[in-house]
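Hi support team,

I've been running sequence recovery on a batch of backbones for a student project. Most finish fine, but this one hangs at about 90% for roughly twenty minutes before it completes. I'm not sure whether the input is malformed or the queue is just slow. I've pasted the structure tokens below so you can try to reproduce it. Let me know if you need the job ID as well.

Thanks,
M.K.
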């Protein structure tokens, strides 16, 4: 059984696949925060702005097996005559609480490349085509390599230097999406300026922007 908060077709807005047409599957649940505001202050990740509770979002629901969910997601991909390779992004919450080898295989059988965006604290099943790890807070990583590491910046208690020698093909810094004094609680914080300055001083890192928000898409 899989619990999906929402699923939709849009453009990938962030990181190394930015601009690519994608089917997104947002799983319910996370291992670093319950999703309830009452628990935010004591959570292992305190700055998440995503609703991943329940199954009541667009095209959300509970799916009895991998084939049922794969069929559901495949129906969201438009027919382009086979010109573009279908692409699915599993996200959350924390997708690796639910994503498994059976679902990955089912998506591959339907012609999809499979991507996942994970906080890196749980083991990754085999078969992922694009692995993005986005560390959250001072939580130990069990995933130390992949296609891209995308670090929301700045985060209290961690710096990019901590991750710079890990085995990723691409390193991205993404400004925290909050006005000065927002979730960070620091009125002097300017995430964009700090992130740009860090990328200029450390060219290993590339700037990642949430281009879907700039473009006005989901």
């Amino acid at each position: 059984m899989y619990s999906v908060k929402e699923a939709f077709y849009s453009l990938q807005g962030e990181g190394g696949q930015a601009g690519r047409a994608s089917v997104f599957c947002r799983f319910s649940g996370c291992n670093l925060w319950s999703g309830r505001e009452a628990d935010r202050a004591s959570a292992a990740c305190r700055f998440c702005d995503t609703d991943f509770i329940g199954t009541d979002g667009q095209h959300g629901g509970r799916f009895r097996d991998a084939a049922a969910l794969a069929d559901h997601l495949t129906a969201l991909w438009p027919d382009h005559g086979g010109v573009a390779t279908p692409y699915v992004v599993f996200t959350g919450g924390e997708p690796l609480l639910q994503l498994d080898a059976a679902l990955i295989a089912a998506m591959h059988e339907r012609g999809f490349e499979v991507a996942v965006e994970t906080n890196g604290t749980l083991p990754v099943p085999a078969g992922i085509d694009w692995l993005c790890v986005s560390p959250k807070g001072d939580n130990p990583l069990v995933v130390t390599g992949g296609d891209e590491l995308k670090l929301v910046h700045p985060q209290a208690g961690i710096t990019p230097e901590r991750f710079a020698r890990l085995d990723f093909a691409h390193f991205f810094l993404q400004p925290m999406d909050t006005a000065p004094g927002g979730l960070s609680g620091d009125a002097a914080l300017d995430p964009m300026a700090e992130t740009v300055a860090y990328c200029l001083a450390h060219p290993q890192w590339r700037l990642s922007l949430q281009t879907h928000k700039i473009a006005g898409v989901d």
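--
Follow-up from support: It reproduced on our side and the slowdown came from queue contention, not your input. The beta strands are 2-11, 21-27, 61-63, 87-91, 113-118, 130-133, 145-153, 167-175, 206-207. No action needed from you.
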